[in-house]
From TrEMBL:
GO molecular function: methyltransferase activity
Keywords carried by this UniProt record: Methyltransferase, Transferase
GO biological process terms held by the UniProt record: methylation
Source organism: Sporomusa sphaeroides DSM 2875
Protein name in the entry: Monomethylamine methyltransferase MtmB
Coiled coil: none
Amino acid sequence: MKAIAKPITVFDVYERAQSGPEMSEADWDFGVIPQTAKKLKEKYGIKIDRKTIIPEDEDLINNLFQAGLDMLVECGVYCIDTNRVIKYTRDEVLLAIKSAPDHFTYGENQEAIHVVPRAYNSKKVPVIQGGPTGSPCSEKLFMPIHQAYAQEPIVDTIVNGVMQTVMGKDPVPESPWEIMAVRSELLQVREAQSRAGRTGMGL
């Protein structure tokens, strides 16, 4: 009798990150990933039409999903902190997909938006996220840049950039300046949203 998969917990992931197969990051990036992708591309006969941004052929969509599922199960997820591979079974992955929420609310009050699954042929208007999205921004222009995005009525949520400096200092990783920069980014984006009349906008 086949065992029933149980939901994966954060503790399961931690343990697998400690005990999974050891591998160098280079072997993972330049060996496992491209070799597996090439094999699955051939297995499922995947051919992408470069003129079609979002695939609409249902057979291709299904094959892309199956290839992605196979790739996750075969490759697992690489943990750069332990140099090990976190492995999942097919049943665990499918259970996680089945158990995932089918909607959530992003933002607050009048700026709240409801995010729901959207198929390629859906008539629903997509959620528009605006912002520098992790790109470096000068300390001087950080707030005006984010205010410009928040002022656009079509933009539903903000994906913020990162400050190049904070109080003129380099926000070196794992330093107090990094903490200061992250805190300043949050406060300035919230202020930018407020100045644009979009208080409560998702971030």
